[in-house]
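User: Here's a structure from my thesis project, written as structure tokens. My advisor, Dr. K., wants to see whether a designed sequence matches the one we expressed. Can you design one independently, without my sequence as a hint?
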């Protein structure tokens, strides 16, 4: 069995993969992950980059902005499907991440726990890209995977 991991946007992909294909992976690891709610990601990363009229005219605008069509945005988010996740999840996040806010990691971990997913959130005194705490975070990740991966 394989594990699924990802950093930043890849952490969001990891969560979607676990929710979409329960049992396909042995575990999931997300480092400095984006939000598990796509509307938050859109608002944080996309909306500041384009005028509202341009957003409405683009492909993303077909479904409305997150406030206009919340059902669509929840439907493309992994969080509502966390109840389908069967694998343990490790989230690794820097306390000083200014790209993916730490509140996203807390909310994702709370939602995973609320869905009875075996999940752990590990905090490090680092930013989005991990620098000084990289080795400690990687050691923790390796221990997590060794404990959960079949031999």
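Assistant: Designed independently from the structure alone:
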């Amino acid at each position: 069995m394989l594990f699924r991991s990802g950093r930043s946007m890849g952490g969001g992909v990891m969560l979607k993969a676990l929710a979409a294909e329960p049992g396909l992976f042995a575990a999931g690891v997300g480092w400095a992950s984006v939000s598990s709610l796509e509307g938050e990601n859109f608002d944080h990363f996309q909306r500041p980059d384009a005028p509202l009229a341009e957003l409405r005219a683009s492909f993303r605008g077909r479904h409305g902005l997150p406030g206009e069509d919340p059902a669509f945005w929840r439907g493309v988010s992994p969080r509502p499907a966390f109840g389908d996740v069967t694998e343990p999840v490790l989230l690794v996040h820097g306390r000083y991440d200014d790209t993916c806010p730490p509140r996203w990691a807390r909310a994702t971990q709370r939602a995973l726990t609320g869905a009875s997913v075996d999940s752990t959130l590990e905090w490090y005194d680092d930013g989005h890209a991990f620098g000084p705490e990289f080795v400690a975070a990687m050691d923790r990740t390796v221990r997590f995977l060794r404990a959960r991966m079949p031999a």
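When you compare it with your expressed construct, this may help: Residues 84 and 103 are 23 Å apart (CA to CA).
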